[in-house]
Specification:
Helix content is 19%, strand content 30%. By secondary structure, it is an alpha+beta fold. The protein is elongated and about 65 Å long.
Amino acid sequence: MSKDFFKKLSDREKEIICNKGTEAPFSGKYNFHFDAGIFVCKACESPLYESNSKFDSGCGWPSFDDEIPNAIVRYDDNSLNRKRIEICCANCGGHLGHVFHGEKITKKDTRHCVNSLSIKFVPYNNLNEIFIGYRSFWKIQEIFHNKPGIYMTQAGFMKSIDNDGSNIILDEVLENLEVSQVFYDEKIISLSEILDHVFELHETNIESELEDLDILNDLFCFFTNKDQKVSLEQIKSMYSLRRDINIWILPKTKFDRADEFHQNYFEKNAR
């Protein structure tokens, strides 16, 4: 453990990272942080975790079900009269927390329980973000699972009306719409290609459902910048007349991430 890495740390950070302390549950800044990026060691800034491995375990500390290769070292920890596995930064040796197995919260069945004070978040600036609402967010997450260019998706709810009463999108306003937050690399997958996957899902649903069912044919696209809005309008003009689907193009409002039960539902519950 090189002392040079720890000179800039605060006293509280040193207590956690150097002296193997633990911050109070639900007190850390990263417990409910779910943006696209990478988590690095607070002391030496070595990459530790991709944010697409982060999940909400409900334990009160940031949780990850995977690590960047060779970033973490493990040690037996027999303190507090129980057996645990301590995890530390492989580069500087700083204490991160503990790792647990067998809880079955995610498919990888692993939980790195990490102190927020041991890590720092660095956002990815090369990714675009869009929110897609089409029937179930479970299905949207499923079709984008492991798709090249898709960094991560999250299930949640988007308010259909702003707090000031503007942006009403339906005659009968829904408080929240099921949407999937999609982070993607436009150099690998275009917005048009992303929506093509949704259109294919829609056409499959139409073919498989009975005519007397009340079919929901609305696709909601919540844009996050002006260029994205222009692209969506071009896509709508190309496809809306050819497909039995209503495309709504709307600015992003408040997004609330759904419970962990809903995240990657079909991946965790293989059909």
